[in-house]
Amino acid sequence: MSKRKIKVLVIGGPTGVGESTITKAVIKAHPNFKRLVTATTRKPRLNEKNGIDYYYFTEVQFKDEIKKGNIIEYTYVVKRKVYYGSYKPDLDKKIKKGYDIIINPDLVGARYYKEYYNATTIFIAPESLGDLRKRLLARDPNINKKELEKRLAGAKYEMEKEASFYDYRVINKEGKLEQAIEEVLEIIK
Q1: What is the number of other CB atoms lying within 10 angstroms of the CB of residue 141?
Q2: How far apart are the first and last CA of the chain?
Q3: What is the pTM of this model?
Q4: For 1-6, which contacts have Cβ atoms below 8 Å and span 24 or more sequence positions?
Q5: 10 pairs with which residues across the strands?
Q6: Which of 43, 129, 151, 170 is the most buried (most CB within 10 A)?
Q7: Chain segment 124-154, per-residue pLDDT in tens
Q8: With contact defined as beta carbons under 8 Å apart, do 128 and 63 qualify?
Q9: Beta bridge partners of 50
Q10: How far is 163 from 10, CA to CA, in rounded Å?
Q11: What are the beta bridge partners of residue 40?
């Protein structure tokens, strides 16, 4: 297998599995990686800044950006009535400056980047659903049972039906985050 230079790296996985933490570790180890800033229609949270945390749009603006070709792939989260998508001007600017891009999209985004940017894709999985349950409860002890079960069902679906799409699969075992980070860094090498 010939080595190729990574330009776009997708790190995905179920909510709570650690893909954001691993992404931050990759950027710290490889400063040439820059995170793609996602576009959204949700309101900014405390201390979040436009263009740094997200690109914030109203729903009308977001749909207009899609028509202009500036949002190249997106997902609508029905439960929260919020759009999330990839903002092409941010992507183009970072690629033009010579950066490698790191993205944490859902499967729709992963497929898009694989097809149009020849992305390297890594799926981060928990050791088990029981392990993921513990993480989700630790992260949000007040999560209601219905929401917890919904997230676990979504994770099970992703692990069974979507993980095979990715080029690599890394298990983030409980208490072994550094090991998962090292595996991702080895893949990048």
Answers
A1: 7
A2: 13
A3: 0.86
A4: 6/100, 6/120, 6/188
A5: 103, 121
A6: 170
A7: 999 999 999 999 898 888 888 988 888 898 8
A8: no
A9: 54
A10: 12
A11: 56, 84
pLDDT digits (tens, 9 = 90+) for 23-33: 999 999 999 99
Contact by Cβ (8 Å): 115, 3: no
Residue type, 118: N
Domains belonging to the chain, first-starting first, are 1-32+99-189 (3.40.50.300), 37-98 (3.30.63.10)
100-103 and 33-35 strand pairing: parallel
DSSP code string of 113-182: HHHHH--EEEEEEES-HHHHHHHHHHH-TT--HHHHHHHHHHHHHIIIIIGGGSSEEEEE-TT-HHHHHH
As a dihedral over the C-alpha atoms of residue 152, residue 75, residue 115, residue 171, rounded to 10 degrees, the angle is -20
